[in-house]
Amino acid sequence: MIEVKAVSKQFGTITAVRDLTFRVEEGEVYGLLGENGAGKTTTMRMMATILAPTAGDIEISGFSVRHEPLEVRRRIGILFGGEVGLYSRLTARENIAYFGSLYGLPPSRVQERIDSLSRILEMEPFIDRRVGAFSRGMKQKVAIARTLVHDPDVILLDEPTTGLDVTAATIFRRMVTRLQEEGKTILFSSHNMGEINKLCKRVALIHKGRLRFSGGLDALRKQFGTDDLDDIFMAVVEGGEH
């Protein structure tokens, strides 16, 4: 479970997130919507204890990011958009294994997890190749596997399909469904409304650091009087929220 409680984040005189409150239930895939610069990544960095909230608090599985950051880190896996940060001279397997060891997993368990994730993400053809020459999509698959290697209860995914082609994105969505069936709690950040529509039943919509909506997709459509999520998104961006 993730509970965001009146969270704000300031960088000097700039307020990136203001008084954000929403809740993600255990075993739920929850969408965090907003255009680039809306505050999605800042919010997820606070969840991951990389940034400290200026005000408010976030609880992950009952642990406070302010007061119990180590307990939070033990329970989360996180993937940020942009540069995936892999070691180019290591193979895909070695990159994933390195992060598994950082979480204290025994080598046999690490290899078991790598083999499983490699099959799910269809990485077997390149799992033992060095990542330096990989395509963006191949690197993204390795980064996703690295996020999941320690089998976290709470998974934070910031624009996870960046660089993935249609086939790879479909594989990813199937994996998210599988993780949900295993009882994982997943926060999925995106500005791709179609993807959110396929994966999530509830969302939080953020614009300029403020919460514009939190609840079910059906309620969102009803509030804005349209089934087109792209139209809803643009209404909020253009200041037409109800």
Automatic annotation (TrEMBL):
In terms of SUPFAM superfamilies, this protein maps to: P-loop containing nucleoside triphosphate hydrolases
Domain of life the protein comes from: Bacteria
Q: Where is the ABC transporter domain?
A: 2-233
Fetch the InterPro entries from UniProt: AAA+_ATPase, ABC_transporter-like_ATP-bd, ABC_transporter_ATP-binding, P-loop_NTPase
Single GO MF descriptor: ATP hydrolysis activity
Question: Which SMART domains does the record match to this protein?
Answer: AAA (SM00382)
Q: Is the Transport keyword given for this protein?
A: yes
Q: Sorted alphabetically, which keywords does the UniProt record give?
A: ATP-binding, Nucleotide-binding, Transport
**Signal peptide: which range, if any?**
none
Residue ranges annotated as coiled coil are none
Q: Which PANTHER family match?
A: ABC TRANSPORTER ATP-BINDING PROTEIN, ABC TRANSPORTER ATP-BINDING PROTEIN NATA
**Similarity comment text for this entry:** Belongs to the ABC transporter superfamily.
Name under which the protein is recorded: ABC transporter
Name the source organism.
Brevibacillus agri
